[in-house]
Amino acid sequence: MTTSVDNSQRIAAKVAGIAGILGFILVVFGNYVLLDPLIVPRNAVETAHNILAHQTRFRLALACFITYGIGGIVLLTALYVIFAPVNRGLALAGALFRLVFVMLWLVAPLNSLDYVGLPFFGLAATVCAWLWLKSGYIARGLSIFGVIASAWCVICAFIYLIFPDFNKIVNDYIFDSPMALFELVVSFVLLFKGLNPPGYR
Q1: How much is the pTM?
Q2: What is the residue extent of each domain of the chain?
Q3: CB-based burial, 114-129: b 16+ in 10 Å, e otherwise
Q4: Residue 3: which pLDDT band, with cuts at 50, 70 and 90?
Q5: Region 170-199: what's the mean pLDDT?
Q6: What are the φ and ψ backbone dihedral angles of 139, each rounded to 5 degrees?
Q7: Please, which pLDDT band fits residue 107 given cuts at 50, 70 and 90?
Q8: How far apart are CA 164 and CA 55, in angstroms?
Q9: Which residues touch 122 (CB under 8 Å, ≥6 apart)?
């Protein structure tokens, strides 16, 4: 058993605390404030009418649930960092069990909205772009573009989930084209140039 707590564990503890609190707020707000008033027990027809009459509210509830799922992934990662020095196997098992819960939790929202995979793709790309920036493995300017392009995709995708007419203001292709261009350029850089030394600027 470890006898000391390192800086990464301290940071992970703060992240876990924030993720846990925000997750609780999101799931309570999404369930009890937004969704429950639309549901008529044992009356699917009336429930469907309520959802159709309050589509923005319904979509906002689903966005809360999706964000809660994302927060669950952040939380499991932070908990893994905290517990890995104690017992890496159990920490991994706990993280995997929590991941299964998150995936099952997301099944309903994922089946209720189209275009819903894009925020996850954008989040994955944003995390990777940030890691490219911090590592210096690729050009700094390219990494910064990747962070901005990927974050833009996440923002647009979430707005679209709540307000489906958003694509009349910002075309669908503008959501993810900058991010896709970044990923394509990085692929060519990796293929033909390789990685810069760690910390390279």
Answers
A1: 0.68
A2: 7-111, 119-192
A3: eebebbbbbbebbebb
A4: low
A5: 86
A6: -55, 140
A7: confident
A8: 10
A9: 150, 151, 153, 154, 157, 176, 179
